[in-house]
Amino acid sequence: MLFDDEYITVTHPAVGEFRDRGSRFLSFIYPVKREAEVKDLIQQIRKNHPKANHHCYAFRLGPGKQIFRFSDDREPAGSAGKPIFGVIQSNDLTDVLIIVVRYFGGTLLGVPGLINAYRESAAAGIKNASLITLPVVERYQLNFSYEVMNEVMTVIKMSKAQIYHQELAENCMVQVELVRKNSELFLDKIKNNHLLTGKCELKLC
């Protein structure tokens, strides 16, 4: 059972294949974090498979699964991208891209046949992939005066937050990341510490 502080994704790229009446469907599964990665990978697949008739895909990004898109790439509407996306949904995945390329075999499959083929190809790729459940990570930035640096660092350590960028001077800035299940403790200690009142600004990155 997944909670709000966990999500499932793939660890490494994987490949799957499905054939129907001469048509060959190859699926390529990738872990992705940003839409720029999605664009680059689709272009790479088009370059690697220039003779394929279609390059259909679906992706979903973010622990909250709020960013997603799918494409039929000239197949009949709803016959390719949506079935691929359905495989992502049925496996409760995010931060994942699935591209399915089709080499036409000379026989029309019809919309039901296409839906089945793209779904089965995507599912074959997922079957060959390694899935992992990861904690949702949140990032915060703290701006504070140097005089309260020790207090801030103590809170960071107690909350098991990890510093990934800092600028320590008269006016300090520290960026931290921590798993969501520890964020409530972190926020409470920052906001309710009277020594930090008016001397520490906190914002979500």
Keywords:
single chain; alpha+beta; 5 helices; 205 residues; Alpha-Beta Plaits
Structure in a nutshell:
The chain is of the alpha+beta class and 205 residues long.
Helix-strand category: alpha+beta
Counted by DSSP, the helix tally is 5
- In angstroms, what is the radius of gyration? 23 Å
Distance between the termini: 28 Å
Q: Specify the CATH class of the largest domain.
A: Alpha Beta
Rough outline: elongated
Approximate strand percentage: 35-45%
Low-confidence stretches: none
- How much helix, percentage-wise, in residues? 25-40%
- For the record, what is the CATH homologous superfamily label of the largest domain? Impact, N-terminal domain
The assigned CATH architecture of the largest domain is 2-Layer Sandwich
Beta-strand segment tally = 11
By CATH, the topology of the largest domain is: Ribosomal Protein S5, domain 2
Overall pLDDT metric? 93
Order of helices and strands: EEEHEEHEHEEHEEHE
Q: Going across the major beta sheet, what is the strand order? A: 2-3-6-4-5
Total of domains: 2
The main pleated sheet reads as: 5 strands, antiparallel
Outline the fold blueprint:
Blueprint: E1 6-10, E2 14-20, E3 23-31, H1 35-48, E4 54-61, E5 67-71, H2 81-90, E6 96-103, H3 110-127, E7 131-135, E8 137-145, H4 149-158, E9 162-167, E10 171-179, H5 180-191, E11 200-204
Antiparallel strand pairs: 1-7, 2-3, 3-6, 4-5, 4-6, 8-10, 8-11, 9-10
